[in-house]
Design a protein that fits this description.
Shape: flat
Number of strands: 4
Strand content: 15-25%
Mean pLDDT: 81
Radius of gyration: 13 Å
Helix content: 10-25%
Distance between the termini: 8 Å
Low-confidence stretches: 65-77
Structural class: alpha+beta
């Protein structure tokens, strides 16, 4: 997602909601490289970023992630958002 302050927010799930990671960057080139690497199943597509585990935001107790998460759901494979 391109945020209003011209930074890119990239997220992915790694199988379970507790393994939801997020990073921010101003580099469109790095985002493009990560998305292409993810799409091509390259194992190192996450390299070059500082990832923060934001999985605790999804322990709302009702089994559903908060609405501000853009409606993404975890899958068996890592999913870029």
């Amino acid at each position: 997602m391109l945020r209003e302050n011209n930074t890119y927010q990239v997220e992915y799930w790694d199988g379970v909601r507790e393994q939801h990671f997020q990073t921010m960057t101003v580099s469109q080139k790095k985002v493009l490289g990560a998305l292409l690497g993810w799409a091509r199943s390259k194992p190192d597509w996450r390299n070059g970023f500082m990832w923060n585990n934001i999985g605790e935001q999804f322990n709302s107790g009702d089994g559903e992630p908060p609405e501000q998460v853009c409606g993404t759901k975890p899958s068996m494979a890592p999913e870029a958002v």
